[in-house]
Amino acid sequence: MLLLDLSGVACAKPITLYYEGAKPPIEDVRNAMIGDIQEYEKLYSEAFGRMVVCIDSKPYWRSEVQPAYKQSRAKAKAKSDIDWDTFGADVNQIHKDLVEYSNYIVIDIQGAEADDVIAVLTEYATSIDEHTVIISSDKDMLQLQLRNKKAHQFSPNRNKLLTLENTEYDLLSHILKGDVSDCIPNVFSLDNHFMIEGDKPRQKSITKKIIAEAREYYPDNMDKCELLDETAQARFKQNQELIDTTYTPKVLQETIISMYIRKCAITKEHRIEELLSPFESEEDEVNEDKGKGVRL
Question: How many Cβ atoms from other residues are within 10 Å of residue 99's Cβ?
């Protein structure tokens, strides 16, 4: 199964077209994004099958678990020189283009993030004895390799395969420490820590000692970990729900798998070339050397 995070691909090379407040023509953005998608397809579709494009669709279910989830990103975007409204609108248009002009399987389910779609379909692929390659720069997706020996991941940002051997990742540490980029504080902090205006209370450090003791009880007996008081235990459970992909709500999991199976049965005419500008310069042509040395 070939799983691609559309927003992750957009935030690799295509987003550079928006630097310093630029508003590039949609044709240029489309050429850049679809060119990348086609290159990943060339590299991996023969071994992993038809491209599955995974889409973020707000409002995310995690925002119901923790209202502060990803809320600080709006502030960061406001300070950026990128016109995020234009960028978002362009990515949405390309999403629609892919639905109309390609035979890719596009999965877009309200409440689910691309990570949810990727995680659920990776588990499903394992259940039917399929290998999976994930096109995503999100290091969090490495947790899928902990559970699925047939799962692989290619990072567009790093232009390399991410493995548990070449990239540091530990799910337990991630849950204990939280995730600054997603506004998930560590287990000793208030759940709205990153939304506090002005000087924030200092987060207590998650030490190696805490991680080591927690590991003795993780995952089934965390209530016995004495270094986590009752409040920290509750925060741990919330962080686990937000970070561990196995906690994606069952109804979403079932909907994702159902949509995938249904769309697999539909074969559409692949007219993706109609979207690409015939006047693409040599500078903008897809680099045929991209991805060399990262074939599986």
Answer: 14
The beta-carbon contacts of 69-75 under 8 Å, at least 24 apart in sequence, are 69/182, 69/183, 69/184, 69/242, 70/182, 70/183, 71/183, 71/194, 71/195, 72/183, 72/194, 72/195, 73/181, 73/183
Hey, how many other C-beta atoms are within 10 angstroms of the C-beta on 296? 11
d(CA 194, CA 184): 8
- Which tens digits make up the pLDDT trace of 217-273? 999 999 999 999 999 999 999 999 999 999 999 999 999 999 999 999 998 999 999
Supply 94's token pair.
Answer: 């390309």
For residues 289 and 203, give the distance between their C-alpha atoms in angstroms, rounded to a whole number.
45
pLDDT tens string 133-152: 999 999 999 999 999 999 99
Note the pTM of the prediction, 2 decimals. Answer: 0.91
